[in-house]
Write a structure and sequence with these properties.
By secondary structure, this protein is an all-alpha fold. The protein contains 7 helices and no strands.
C-alpha cells in the first residue's frame, strides 16, 4: 500500500517538476547572440510560438509578404521574410531581440516611423522570443548561421 502511494506521488510530481523546469529554462535570458539552432525542445517551442504569433504576417514558411521591400498602400512596409531571402540575418541577435520585444520604432530609435509589427513585451517571455529567433535561424543555410554568429561576436567586442 505504501509503495503504491509512493509510486503514485512520483508519477504525479515528476511530470509537474519537469514542466516547471522546462518553463524556467526557456524563460531565463541568455547572452544574446548565441542562439541555439540545434536544441530540439527550444526549436519546437520556437516553431509553436512563431506559428501562433508571427506566421500570419511573416508566413508559415518564413517567406514574408510579397513586395516586402516596397511600402504598401497604407504606407507601411510589408512583413519581411525571415528565411535566407530576407535581411533578418544581417542584424545582430541583440537588435532582433529588441525589435521583437520592444518594436522596431523603439529598438532602432526610429522616431516618427510607423510599423504594423507589434511589440511583444508582456506577450512573450524573453525565453519565447529567443526560441522564435532560434527557430528562425535554424532555417538558414549553415554559411548564413556562421556569418550571423560572427556578426554577433563582432558586435559584442
Amino acid at each position: 500500500m505504501i509503495q503504491r502511494v509512493a509510486l503514485s506521488a512520483v508519477l504525479i510530481i515528476a511530470p509537474m517538476l519537469a514542466l516547471l523546469w522546462v518553463e524556467y529554462a526557456f524563460d531565463q535570458p541568455r547572452i544574446l547572440g548565441w542562439l541555439n539552432s540545434t536544441e530540439r525542445a527550444e526549436l519546437q517551442l520556437g516553431q509553436n510560438v512563431y506559428q501562433t504569433n508571427c506566421a500570419a504576417c511573416h508566413g508559415t514558411n518564413l517567406q514574408g509578404e510579397p513586395n516586402w521591400q516596397t511600402p504598401g498602400a497604407d504606407g507601411l512596409m510589408p512583413a519581411p521574410p525571415h528565411d535566407e531571402t530576407g535581411h533578418t540575418w544581417h542584424h545582430t541577435t541583440e537588435l532582433l531581440f529588441a525589435i521583437t520585444k520592444y518594436g522596431i520604432v523603439e529598438a532602432a530609435n526610429l522616431e516618427g516611423y510607423q510599423s504594423a509589427m507589434p511589440a511583444y513585451e508582456g506577450v512573450l517571455t524573453d525565453g519565447e522570443i529567443e526560441a522564435v529567433l532560434s527557430f528562425t535561424k535554424s532555417h538558414w543555410p549553415e554559411e548564413l548561421q556562421e556569418q550571423h554568429r560572427r556578426l554577433d561576436e563582432r558586435a559584442q567586442n
